[in-house]
Amino acid sequence: MIEVIDLSFSYNDRPFIDMNFSVKKGEIFGFLGPSGAGKSTLQKILTGLIRSYKGNAIVNKTECKSYKDDFYENIGVDFEFPSLYEKLTGRENLKFFGSLYSKKLRDVDELLKMVGLQNDGGKKVSEYSKGMKSRLNFIKALLHNPDILFLDEPTSGLDPNNSRIMKNIIINEKEKGKTIILTTHNMVDATELCDKVAFIVDGNIKALDSPHNLIMSKGAAKIKYTFMDGKEEIRECMLGKTSEDAKLQELIMSNRILSIHSSEPTLNDIFAEVTGSVLQ
Amino acid sequence: MRLINLIYGDCRFQFKYGFYFIYSIFTIMYVTIVLFLPLEWREKAAAVLIFSDPSAMGLFFMGAIVLFEKSERVLSTIAVSPVRADEYIISKVVSLGIISAISGASIALSADAQNMLIVITGVIAGSALFTLIGLIVAVNINSLNQFVTAAVPIEIIIFTPPILYLFGYDNKFMLLHPGCVIISMISGSSDYILFLPIFIIWFLFLYKMARINVIKMFQNLGGIKL
């Protein structure tokens, strides 16, 4: 569904984007990276806004720099910050943005209900909370039933309940065969939702694989234990090397362990290890 | 169909944000002023009022409209929708042209203008021209202060020659200035006819500039600035 081959883009005469990857139909592909890494610029290339790139960026069988008029009929973008007319109601916003497409639209009331806004469609957006705006913005991207969705921090600013609802909708869209590009700082969401993730730093992909494979290939499970030695001490050792940890052996034999936990590395740990930077 | 929806959307936006209300007040005020003037002053006074306000309002309103659109980030969504830069520009020109035409016609009627068709054509042509200029300025600014700073020298360049032309400095070469052609039409004179091709060249030039600037604005939303 998306093919990026030897894509390069220079900005102010310095290379900024240089990457290869592909996204299959029905896949959720996550872009993870710090601010300024090139995620938005890549999204602008894939949505046809930047055409001065080299190499190939093919979306839905169309080279992005030479797209035809119907290119945007099949692309839905949910920006990180709401892009809505504040003085129009939620329903008026959806109807206006929907009227810009020639495709058959999804039912507005059904979409509002899906994100719990069925009783708020008649309110002005200026009266919405931050979370309500995020949810309305999200369904705005689904309105014209696009084949490809670009979602930028879709759960940002949402309470756990609404975050869960949004993630379920994303999974549901994937099951319908939608291809989803997810840009996020949230490693928990990326681990749960993405079939593949790419770590982007300075316009380059530093690692690309499924979250599970990245975690298993780059890290190993650890155990963390605490004990009293005058004051409370914490130590760690790799799960596969417990027999080599003399202190752990000694504590077990003397029943002095206060607590013991096993833990796998998170995607965040792997990101830090691979890229040398930490996501907020 | 999309263009019609876009124009309808822009008209609704302008209505909801009070543009129609403001212009109703201004129009009533201008009509009242014209009706209180002596008969022999009315035609020129109406021409100046129509030229400097209903016709030129695109210059001021485009700043407000684009700043609203930028602050509410709706341009990001429009940029990745099937809406083309041409449709975006035409929608702005037509939607503001409707308010200009209604307001301009009301003032002209109060002054007993002789050739209403030419007057309204002049108002619409002026509105289109000023909207394009306003759009070119507005897409390159990020605050009202920046807009006002940029708009003042443009106003001087655009408004001074037509007013001089109307009040006697009527050298025909003045009609190379698009504002003079517009005020010539609004005042009901037929001087403009020979200079219409020059006005069209100005219009096409400004349209091209607006198109380049709108495309650049769409590209610069989020990510790096090209």
Model description:
The complex is a heterodimer of chains A (280) and B (226). With 280 residues, chain A is an alpha/beta fold. Chain A has two domains: 2-215, P-loop containing nucleotide triphosphate hydrolases (Rossmann fold, 3-Layer(aba) Sandwich); 220-264, no CATH class. In chain A, 30% of the residues lie in helices and 30% in strands. Chain A has helices at residues 39-46, 90-98, 108-114, 130-142, 160-175, 187-193, 211-218, 246-253, 267-275; strands at 2-11, 14-23, 28-32, 54-59, 62-63, 75-78, 148-152, 179-184, 196-201, 204-209, 222-229, 231-238, 257-263. In chain A, the strands form three sheets. A six-stranded mixed β-sheet of chain A has the order 6-7-8-3-9-10. In chain A, strands 2-1-4-5 form a four-stranded antiparallel β-sheet, with helices on one face. In chain A, helix 5 (160-175) links the parallel strand 7 (148-152) and strand 8 (179-184). In chain A, helix 7 crosses helix 9. Chain A is globular and about 75 Å long. The mean pLDDT of chain A is 88. With 226 residues, chain B is an all-alpha fold. Chain B has one domain (2-219). Helix content of chain B is 77%, strand content 0%. The longest helix of chain B has 26 residues, at 85-110. Chain B is globular, with a radius of gyration of 18 Å. The model of chain B has no long low-confidence stretch (mean pLDDT 87). The A-B interface holds A 11, 16, 40-41, 43-44, 47-50, 52, 69-73, 75, 77, 79, 81-88, 92, 96-97, 99-102, 140 and B 1-2, 5-6, 8-9, 12-13, 16-17, 72-84, 218-219, 221-224, 226.
